[in-house]
UniProtKB/TrEMBL annotation:
A family per Pfam: Aminotran_1_2
UniProt entry keywords in alphabetical sequence: Lyase, Pyridoxal phosphate
Membership in a protein family: Belongs to the class-II pyridoxal-phosphate-dependent aminotransferase family. MalY/PatB cystathionine beta-lyase subfamily.
Domain Aminotransferase class I/classII large positions: 34-350
Cofactor: pyridoxal 5'-phosphate
Name of the protein described by the UniProt record: cysteine-S-conjugate beta-lyase
């Protein structure tokens, strides 16, 4: 394994013993984008690591980035800075829903959704995805009719990598409008899309969007997320002081000058996603071809409810257990392909070894 990666102290590379290849949590294995590295070094050299000050440069760079990359015209008057997207999500629920309200999620779903909704006194309502990763719009309708008041939609979807079409998003908007429901759309993986992507706000003016530079540029530890849309204007302005100034420095540099690095990164992960199905051992298959990001949702046959435990014990490769993503995660694992082709092949070799 790469000695520089092994030396990292972040969660991905520090949780397991040195003989375990980590391919689990959503951190990528690539070097930091040069514009981010340079901007952070400049800030450090001048001792500039205080609280967040003016944001005009950041918001200008953000608007340009999303316009040219995703065709999304961000209204910078409707952007709130938060420590990360899940903080933004919880603050939105506190302001725009009532205690006890049901909030719909679509399992298999990002594990913190299951904890953060009850953390702010709201109730998780599960409407699982269809077999092909499609949104169950009729299921949403039934859940709203039964009393759910909000929806958290993950687009592109984590863990499946599903990229929803304009028609699919329009159908979600229509059912939410019919029930006057509050919608929050987590688009944190959108800048890593390698197929056609439709931003939520290109379809609907309903609700709010969560986004960040953290996933696309691999800087989650710098703590900066964005809430975009009219509901963001109702959040407390002091939330920005819980975000990190280093996150602002990194995001502004990424949004303004990071396109070349991002293009190379997307090319690598897209190639890894395309190669993966043929690399996987018998009994392990991709459940839905990803159209975005570096996460692959794998169905495993004959390995029980928690295949990740088998791969870890027998193959010394760490994958994200599917059980954490809800009931549809039984018999599944999430594999991170945000790495070099060589390390991806090694991860798959270890999976095959575990199957003996």
């Amino acid at each position: 394994m790469d000695s520089q990666l092994v030396a990292r102290g972040s969660e991905k590379w520090s949780k397991y013993p040195p003989d375990v290849l980590p391919a689990w949590v959503a951190e990528m294995d690539f070097p930091l984008a040069p514009p981010i590295r340079e901007a952070l070094h400049t800030a450090i050299d001048r001792g500039d690591l205080g609280y967040i000050g003016p944001t005009d440069g950041l918001l200008e760079a953000m608007r340009g980035f999303y316009a040219r990359r995703l065709g999304w015209d961000v209204d910078t008057e409707q952007v709130a800075l938060v420590a990360d997207v899940m903080i933004g999500f919880k603050e939105l629920l506190l302001v725009h829903t009532q205690p006890g309200d049901g909030v719909i999620i679509n399992p298999p779903a990002y594990p913190p959704y299951f904890d953060d909704i009850p953390h702010v006194g709201r109730a998780v309502v599960e409407v699982p995805l269809g077999e092909d990763g499609a949104i169950d719009v009729d299921g949403l309708d039934r859940a709203f009719a039964a009393g759910a008041r909000a929806l958290l939609l993950c687009s592109p979807h984590n863990p499946t990598g599903r990229v929803y079409t304009r028609d699919e998003l329009a159908a979600v908007d229509a059912v939410a409008a019919a029930h006057d429901a509050f919608v929050v759309v987590d688009e944190i993986h959108a800048p890593l899309t390698f197929t056609d992507f439709t931003p939520w706000q290109a379809v609907s003016g309903r609700g709010a969007v969560l986004t960040s530079a953290s996933k696309a540029f691999n800087v989650p530890g710098l703590k900066l997320g964005f809430v975009v849309g009219e509901p963001a204007t109702k959040l407390h302005p002091h939330l920005r002081y819980h975000a990190g100034y280093a996150g602002l420095v990194a995001a502004e540099a990424a949004f303004r000058d990071g396109d070349d690095w991002l293009d190379e990164t997307i090319a690598t992960i897209a190639a890894n996603q395309r190669a993966l199905p043929a690399l996987l051992p018998a009994g392990v298959e991709v459940t839905y071809p990803a159209g975005a990001s570096y996460l692959a949702w794998l169905r495993c046959t004959g390995l029980g409810d928690d295949p990740a435990a088998v791969f870890l014990e027998r193959g010394r490769v760490a994958l994200q257990p599917g059980l954490g993503f809800g009931a549809p995660g039984k018999g599944h694992v999430r594999l991170n392909v945000g790495t070099t082709p060589e390390l991806l092949r090694e991860a798959v070799r270890r999976m095959a070894r575990a199957l003996g």
